[in-house]
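Hey Z.,

So I finally got round to the flavin-adenine dinucleotide thing we talked about over coffee. Here's the setup:
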Amino acid sequence: MFDVAIIGSGIVGAATAYELSRYDLNVVVLERENDVALGATKANSAVIHAGYDPSPGTLMAKLDVESVALTKELCEKLDVPHKQCGAMVLALSDDEVKTVEFLHNQALINGVKDTHILSKAEVLRLEPNVSQDVAAALHAPTAMIVDPWEYTLALAETAVRNGVEFRFDTDVTDIKPTEQGYKITANATETVDTRIVINAAGLYADDIHNMVAEPDFKISPAKGEYWLLDKSEGTRVNSVLFQCPSKSGKGVLVTPTVHGNLLVGPGNIPAGDKDDVSTTADELKYVKETAKRSVPCIDFSTVIRSFSGNRANTEHNDFVIREAAPGFIDLAGIKSPGLSSAPAIAKMAVQMMSDGGIIFSEKDSFVDSRSRIRFSELSADEKAKLIESDPLYGRVICRCETVTEGEIRDALLSPIPPRSIDAVKRRTNAGMGRCQSGFCGPRVLEILARHYGIERVDVLQDKAGTFVLTSKTKEFVVTNGS
Ligand SMILES: Cc1cc2nc3c(=O)[nH]c(=O)nc-3n(C[C@H](O)[C@H](O)[C@H](O)COP(=O)(O)OP(=O)(O)OC[C@H]3O[C@@H](n4cnc5c(N)ncnc54)[C@H](O)[C@@H]3O)c2cc1C
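And the result:
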C-alpha cells in the first residue's frame, strides 16, 4: 500500500514527487511513457515567467510569483541549466503602449518584483536588434530561461534518491475507491493500492479526473509551433522578447535558450488531438513572420529544428487545483505558466494533503543536491585530469556539443537511466547540435544496445515503438577459417 500515487511525470508530477520525498511517505509515480517530461513539459518556451501576465487573484498569478525564487533556488541546488536574462513585453506601436502600462500595473498588483517601463531608446540600448518600430517595453528582470527537461529530470532523480519509486510504461486505465483509499489499474491488469491519488496527468488530467469524480472540466489542446535556430543566432537577443498579449495568449516570442540557441514561437491553434505534435508549413510561416515584427533581422536560414507542444487549456481561465474527491487531488489544467509555477503547485498539493489529515514527518536523511559532469564546460586542465582518471571522458561521441562517452555512461548509471537515443540527448546534449545527431545518433544507438544487451534493431529513437532500424540488412554466417 502506497501513501501517495502521483499520475504523470511532467514538471508538475516531478515537482510534487520531489516535495513529498522530504517526508517519511511511501510514494510512487505512474507514467505511461518511458521517460520523464514527454508531455507538455517537453515542448514549450522554457521561460520562468515573472508573473505580470496572469489576471490578479488567479492561482496562476499567485503560484507563478511564489515560484520565481523557488525555481532559481532549485536550479542552483540541483545543477539545472538556467539564466536570469529577464523578459520584455514590446509595444510595437503607440497603441500598444497602453497594454504595456496595463501589464505593469498588473505586475504591481500580482507582487512581481522590479518591473518597470523602458523607453524606446532604453529598449534599443539593451536589445539593439529589436525593430525600430518599438515604442516602449515592460521590463521584468526576474524572468529566467531554463532547460525544462533537465529541470524535470533533476527533481525526479532527487525524488528517487530520497526513496520515491518511478514506474514507466504504466498507463493508468482505471481508479476505484477502496476502504483505505484507491485501487489504480494500469495497463489494464496491474494494480496499485494507495491512500492518496495526485492527478498530474497534463493533457489527460480530465480523463483521470473522470475516473473518480463527476466531469466538470474538459481539456481542449491548443498547439504552439516553434523554430529552433543554430547557435550562430543565439546572441541575436539578450532577453526573452514578447509581443503584447492578445486573446489568443502571450503571442510569439524570441528568446535565447540556455544552450545558446535562439528559439522562436509559439503560435496558438487548436490541436487535432492531444497527442498531435505535428508542425505545418502555414503555422510555421505565421510564426516566422510574426517574430520578424519584433526582431526583423533573424536569419531563418540557420534553423536546425521545428517542433510543437500542446497546452492543456480548459474552460476555466485558471489552473484546476483542488481535492475533487476525498484523497484525490487534481493538479489539472496546468497550461502556461505551469513550468514556472511547478514548485509552488507542489507545495500547495502537500499543504492540501496536510489539511486533509496526512501526517508528515520529515526524513533525517533528505538528499537535496545533484550535479553532473559537463565535459565541454571544463577548463583544459580539468579535462586532462578527468580523461586521466577515466579514459571514457576522452572519447567524444557528439562532435557538435562535445559530449563524451563518459557522460553517456554516467547517465546510464543515474537514478532514472535513459532508454532511448532522445533520452540520452535530453540528459547529455548529445544530438542537440547543428547536425541534429547525424554523427552521434548511430554511436549512441550502439552504446544503448551494448548497455542493455539488446539488438540494435530494438533500440528506440524516443517513445515506445519508435524503432530506428526496422531490421538487419546483412546476416553473416561465420565458418571456420573464413
Ligand atoms: C507551446 C507551449 C509553450 C509553453 N511555454 C511555457 C513557458 O514558457 N513557461 C511556462 O511556465 N509554461 C509554459 N507552458 C506550459 C507548461 O509547459 C505546462 O504548464 C507544463 O509543462 C505542464 O506540466 P504537467 O506536468 O502538468 O504536464 P505534462 O508535462 O504534460 O505531464 C503529464 C504527464 O502525464 C502522463 N500521463 C497522462 N495520462 C496518463 C495516464 N493515463 N497514465 C500515466 N501517465 C499519464 C503523460 O505521459 C505526461 O508525461 C507552455 C506550454 C506549451 C504547450
